[in-house]
Amino acid sequence: MTRYRFDLLDIKEILVSEGVEHWRVEKIKASIINTNLLLKPIIVEMRRKFVIDGHHRLKALALLGASKAPVILADYDSDIDDVGRWIYVADPGCLRCDEFVRLVNELGSLVKRGSDVSRVGVGGEAFSLNVDRLDFYIALKYIDAPLSKVPQGLFKESAYRCYLIPPKLTPNDLYILLSRGLTLPPRSTLHRTYLKEAVIPYPIKRLVKR
Question: At residue 142, does pLDDT exceed 90?
Answer without folding.
Answer: no
